[in-house]
Input
Amino acid sequence: MNILVIGGAGYIGSHVTRELLDRGHKVTVFDNLSSGLRENLFPEAVFVHGDTLRYEQLVAAMRSGGGMDGAVYLAAFKAVGESMLKPEKYSVNNIIAAINLLNAACETGLRYIIFSSSAAVYGEPAYLPIDEKHPTNPENYYGFTKLEIEKFLSWYDRLKGIRFASLRYFNAAGYDLKGRIAGLEQNPANLIPVIMETARGTRKELQIFGDDYDTPDGTCIRDYIHVSDLAAAHALALDYIGKNEKSVTVNLGSETGSSVMEVLETARRVTGKPIPSRVAERRPGDPAKLTASAALARELLGWKAEYSDMETLVRTSWEAYRK
Ligand code: WQD
Output
């Protein structure tokens, strides 16, 4: 298929682009490079330097190369803390951009959209593991924008026949196993990149946000999923909605929980670096434990996490960060 990857120069977007190219799709990357990186672009993919807030640029990109069959939308802002301080920024860049995308799809006849949603749509867990029937009650504005976009997608499915897959990622981590993606995220706030920056010495220490949670070692438990597993799910989701003409919403997680302490210990062992750490205050809004049920993705998409053991997550990250 002819696929437009919006946000394809970013961390997850570049892995998705690589996967789609490897599977024989024709890919056009659309990115404004606000956080995406030129070094994440591949010569086999066409690059359009464009902005999702410029409607006519989206329309032009969707008409290019003989017309796009589908789009992957990964161009949203994703910093949870920032979304609570600057909701305006998230309203515009996430929600308005998504409406532009949907309207441009209608105008150009693009039929399939793969949307990067998030476990953040669920909020504080009522039970674990979280399946797709879990109530949605986002605790932060970022998660709210993801849930709203899912609702727009459902309406455009009903009214305009645009089929979508909404992929609710848990904690994305790791790097391409073959080392083909070079760009590192700027100012990361997520656990594994922060640990990597500490290991390579560009950050002084890891702050562990609380060690008095109701978990075996007192630190929070999360479900880390390898970015290449996520990327494979995008390709499978595209196949699924194309073949079945039916939209889907699925969780993507490894179904395994790892505590902050366990991640840190694995990183110390794999990198051979001391990685200084200090216990700090709890971070507001952090649930003690989050794990996914990915049974629906397995059943519908035939997807399964293959590279999401902590050893592989950390090793592939370190290969990118040590350079
Ligand atoms: C993981 C754990 C922290 C940094 C976020 C979003 C979620 C989804 C995935 C996209 C937590 C602890 C972290 C640090 C620490 N995103 N930590 N020191 O918050 O689980 O999930 O990314 O959709 O919506 O909320 O990920 O990597 O920030 O934190 O102790 O310097 O590591 O407290 O327990 P989080 P994270």
User: Anything to note?
Assistant: The pocket of WQD is lined by residues 78, 80, 118-120, 169, 171, 189-191, 194, 206-209, 220, 222, 260, 283, 286 (CB under 6 Å). The chain has ten helices and 13 strands.
